[in-house]
Amino acid sequence: MTPQRISRRSLVRGSVAAAALLAASGTTARASAAERAGHAGQALDTEALQAAISDLAHPPSVSAQLRATQGSEHWYGTAGVSDVTTGRRPRPADGFRAGSVTKAFVATVVLQLWAERRVELDAPIGRRLPDLLAPHFEQITVGQLLNHTSGLPDHEGLPDDSTPEGVLRHRFDRWTPEEWVRTIPADRPLKFRPGTKQEYRGITYVLLALLIERLTGRPYGEVIRSRIVEPLALRGTLLPGDDPHLHGPHIHGYLRMTGGTLEDATVFDMSNTWGEGELVSTVDDLFRFQRALFSGRLLPPHAMAKLFTLPPDSVRMLDGSPARYSMGLQKVTVNGVTFWGKTGEVWGYRTRVFATRDGRRGFVLNYTPTPLDTDEEMAARVAAALTS
What we know:
Elements (H helix, E strand, L loop, with lengths): L8 H16 L8 H8 L5 H9 L6 E10 L2 E8 L15 E4 L2 H14 L9 H4 L13 H5 L17 H6 L7 H5 L15 E2 L4 H14 L3 H10 L24 E3 L5 E3 L14 E3 L1 H13 L5 H7 L8 E2 L12 E5 L2 E10 L2 E7 L5 E9 L7 H11 L1
Parallel strand pairs: 4-8
Antiparallel strand pairs: 1-2, 1-12, 3-7, 5-6, 9-10, 10-11, 11-12
Helix pairs in contact: 3-13, 4-9, 4-12
């Protein structure tokens, strides 16, 4: 790859999305027992949920679809169109790019391997992936990669994605995971001592996917398919590998160019998100995955605990706010209701998959914003409708 100017946008989207959702939703740190009991007894406000996704001007979006649940009640709604050319409305089995939701699948497999005693969470990654990282990075542990406390320095030499034109100019760039790891400069010091602070980083999950391959002797996508996709019958979920196309019924993603035109960004080489953001899935599949994961179907109890445990209180985000990432999920509290889940975004797509720890209240939201940068207005409206 030819080095280009670094764009920080692609490096921090997940962390910013989580922080924005927290801020936009008017979160609270604690809820009283009475508040929790009141929330548990509510029925779904389907009118509010439909209104939350129907405002496609805030943020500017082409489509939205939402599956929400409260107890035994389930609801699915859509807005906009899946394809501006045909005008077809979204459907729950339509494929889309789910971005960093990939990380929840990777983390699940790593925790499965840990539960099978095939790897230790406190093992230095250099023991399993020798000579891939600089020596002063090799002591970062598997667990620190999982919960974003690695301290790895920022990338250098990434393509410039600061404009929509730049994004599409590099849409067919091909990277190997090893090339992506090498964008972490070996001569830079760690940003902080591993385990002492938290910073959301996609590169840590590239390393974890490589770890899966080293432990199993198989491509990580095949391992995810055999351990998660096939057992749960997730028929619309796959890791696309070298294929830049979405096949079968799918949601198109679009970008608004600097001059105002709308360009289809659906076809995209996702090799620069290998291991951390290349998943293709559907609303129905992600809903099924979420319920299976939270019910304990995929992990034994001691591994499940890792999904719902944040680092100690002394570990803070770089901006000083409390840590919010566990080993695979993130925590968001809205109107006294605590959700666990994962955000995901790639150009033209955003996905939000969250539920309460008991799985009784949750949602899967996918929408297709057209600007490069948008706030969390839609996700915040959905969260408010579920918790007000």
